[in-house]
């Protein structure tokens, strides 16, 4: 796995690089700002980019803008965005460009090394990784939506875990239910959200986007 890191804090930038290299991952470049990050993406064509939301010069949304541009330049690039705290608009803006190979984690999650590495590998494999705290806040801020209101409390629990990027087995383990029960809940979610039978991955992404866009 070839990785580029974009982070303006030199301690965190180098700390991430050391952590990932210690795990046998190939950090091909690090960058202190969005322009240097995009140059590194062009030069090294990485598999995964780890990008801070706020970078110079304005420390607002440079990371999100750069992440979207990097995906335009290198289709299929997995992007893991890091933020010091939940920024709802940035999370939904990023996911509006498609959720495959996209992650949004709070920086505190980096300290939980195994969780962080699991999220990184999930992205590289084509999945998503949304911080549980982001999902929780999106849930509490959600606007009324007729289709989402059709879901039972357990189905909403399952959809929230889908939004975090968990697969069926991981959802079953988290909720202490069988894989079959999770499969049934997801089938009900698709039906209640009016997602017609189609490719399973497509419907899963569509359900998660409906959930996140309701915030």
Automatic annotation (TrEMBL):
<dbReference type="InterPro" id="IPR058245">
    <property type="entry name" value="NreC/VraR/RcsB-like_REC"/>
</dbReference>
<dbReference type="InterPro" id="IPR036388">
    <property type="entry name" value="WH-like_DNA-bd_sf"/>
</dbReference>
<feature type="domain" description="HTH luxR-type">
    <location>
        <begin position="144"/>
        <end position="215"/>
    </location>
</feature>
<dbReference type="InterPro" id="IPR016032">
    <property type="entry name" value="Sig_transdc_resp-reg_C-effctor"/>
</dbReference>
<dbReference type="GO" id="GO:0003677">
    <property type="term" value="F:DNA binding"/>
</dbReference>
<dbReference type="InterPro" id="IPR000792">
    <property type="entry name" value="Tscrpt_reg_LuxR_C"/>
</dbReference>
<feature type="modified residue" description="4-aspartylphosphate">
    <location>
        <position position="52"/>
    </location>
</feature>
<dbReference type="Pfam" id="PF00196">
    <property type="entry name" value="GerE"/>
</dbReference>
<protein>
    <submittedName>
        <fullName>DNA-binding response regulator</fullName>
    </submittedName>
</protein>
<keyword id="KW-0805">Transcription regulation</keyword>
<keyword id="KW-0597">Phosphoprotein</keyword>
<dbReference type="InterPro" id="IPR011006">
    <property type="entry name" value="CheY-like_superfamily"/>
</dbReference>
<dbReference type="GO" id="GO:0000160">
    <property type="term" value="P:phosphorelay signal transduction system"/>
</dbReference>
<dbReference type="InterPro" id="IPR001789">
    <property type="entry name" value="Sig_transdc_resp-reg_receiver"/>
</dbReference>
<dbReference type="Pfam" id="PF00072">
    <property type="entry name" value="Response_reg"/>
</dbReference>
<keyword id="KW-0238">DNA-binding</keyword>
<dbReference type="InterPro" id="IPR039420">
    <property type="entry name" value="WalR-like"/>
</dbReference>
<dbReference type="GO" id="GO:0006355">
    <property type="term" value="P:regulation of DNA-templated transcription"/>
</dbReference>
<feature type="domain" description="Response regulatory">
    <location>
        <begin position="2"/>
        <end position="122"/>
    </location>
</feature>
<keyword id="KW-0804">Transcription</keyword>
